[in-house]
Design a protein that fits this description.
Layout: H1 29-38, E1 43-48, E2 52-53, H2 65-78, E3 84-90, E4 93-98, H3 100-108, E5 113-119, H4 123-137, H5 142-155, H6 160-167, H7 171-179, H8 185-192, H9 198-205, H10 210-222, H11 227-249, H12 253-269, E6 273-277, E7 282-286, H13 291-303
Helix pairs in contact: 2-3, 4-5, 5-7, 6-7, 7-13, 9-11, 11-12
């Protein structure tokens, strides 16, 4: 049997490792097969890089070549400190679970072998491990992170609450990231290339006219606007629109004030807001577009002190 190189504490991190060898003295066909499996998993091995195939569920779409080259130089000089994680897919063949940057950088450095921790996982676990490992490292762009959340929900049957707990995030954070996938392709591309931040994008979500969205996006990039600047631009745009409507409908100054408040609330909650006056007081109406969107708005309301 391969040596258990990580010692007794391994079970604290990988529960399935604990006590798997207790029935190794049994000679039943099932125990013999289990013994063969254990010889291939839950160990660290030095594997040929050509024996490891990529993870088909890898969420990362873009790899920074400069950072990859820097990592490659570090590995060439000092070796790889943290092993990659793989699963066995046949005799001397493995599939990557996590560590694609390390594997690519090792190949780039011209090194033929790499230390790898071999785990026993099924396809569902493989997807979850790959997505969670990458998202937790926070080296993905916002769209890749949002797609990772979406795949955990769709392919691993996670709820948004489960994703939040797994990653140590607030539920509203998960929902807000998922909403980025509703953005126009031009805005998603700007996020992928770090031309704008998620704060810029969330402001643009509230703009209904696609042409105006693209115009604001271009100005934000060309003039290097802060998030506050694009929020102010969206707010002024709303005020101009409401002022025009006010003139057409003959509304009074008080209506203009309510519309300005409506604009501020729309930016705060990233959704449409309507304020209606009544004889005494009035009502504020916030729109939501799904149960998850409702939960997001409730979370924002509850966070207000």
């Amino acid at each position: 049997m391969a040596k258990k190189v990580l010692g007794r504490g391994l079970g604290a991190f990988f529960p399935e490792y604990d006590q798997k060898g207790e029935d190794s003295h049994s000679n039943t066909p099932g125990s013999i097969e289990r013994e063969r499996v254990l010889q291939r998993v839950n160990v660290i091995k030095e594997l040929s890089v050509t024996d490891i195939r990529p993870n088909p569920y890898q969420p990362r779409e873009v790899f920074d070549e400069i950072k990859l080259q820097e990592l490659s130089e570090s590995i060439r000089m000092h070796g790889l400190i943290q092993p990659v994680t793989v699963r066995s897919v046949g005799s001397d063949r493995y599939e990557l679970i996590s560590g694609e940057r390390r594997l690519r950088a090792t190949k780039m450095a011209g090194i033929s072998t790499i230390p790898a921790y071999v785990r026993e996982v099924d396809d569902d676990e493989l997807i979850a491990f790959a997505l969670i490992e990458n998202v937790q490292r926070e080296q993905l762009n916002p769209i890749e992170i949002a797609l990772g959340y979406k795949r955990l929900i769709e392919e691993c049957s996670y709820t948004q609450d489960m994703v939040a707990r797994k990653l140590g995030k607030n539920r509203s954070t998960i929902t807000n990231m998922l909403r980025l996938l509703n953005l126009r392709p031009s805005i998603q591309h700007a996020l992928k290339t770090s031309a704008i931040s998620t704060g810029h994008a969330r402001s643009l979500i509230t703009v209904e006219d696609p042409k105006i969205q693209d115009k604001l996006l271009k100005k934000a990039i060309d003039e290097d606007w802060s998030v506050r600047q694009i929020e102010d631009a969206v707010r002024k745009l709303d005020l101009r629109k409401t002022a025009k409507n006010t003139l057409l409908k003959g509304k009074d100054q008080n209506d203009l004030h309510l519309m300005e408040i409506s604009s501020r609330l729309r930016n705060k909650f990233s959704t449409r807001v309507q304020i209606k006056k009544k004889n005494k007081g009035g009502e504020i109406r916030l729109e939501y577009y799904s149960d998850d969107d409702l939960e997001r708005i409730i979370s924002l309301l509850e966070s207000i002190e």
